[in-house]
Write a structure and sequence with these properties.
It contains 2 helices and no strands. The chain has about 100 residues and is mostly helical. The chain has one domain. The longest helix has about 70 residues. The radius of gyration is 41 Å and the shape is rod-shaped.
Length: about 100
């Protein structure tokens, strides 16, 4: 045997050990990346669900805001004043006839 084959045989276990170590480290990194990716996808799904819920709430509040704005405009009309005078104060026009049920 020449020196080269002897040197190769003596290096082989060291190379094999270092290759196994590198393989194990790479496998561990892949596992960590896989599980973190799964965790991030779950968080993403939860955030998308919450975003959809919040968008629905925004739409509800915008609709409510429009209703309030319409009611505010109605409160500034003569019709609103007449309705409040009739319901709260019992006032009527001179030519109106009031019917009431006897209990």
């Amino acid at each position: 045997m020449n020196r080269r084959t002897v040197a190769m045989r003596s290096r082989r276990p060291a190379n094999l050990g270092s290759m196994m170590l590198v393989t194990v480290v790479v496998a561990m990194i892949l596992c960590v990346v896989f599980f973190k990716n799964k965790e991030l996808n779950e968080k993403k799904a939860a955030y998308e669900k919450r975003e959809q819920y919040l968008l629905e709430k925004i739409e509800e509040q915008n609709a409510r805001s429009e209703e309030i704005e319409e009611y505010r405009k109605y409160m500034q009309t003569k019709q609103y004043i007449e309705d409040m005078a009739k319901s709260k104060l019992g006032l009527v026009y001179k030519d109106e006839i009031i019917f009431s049920a006897d209990n």
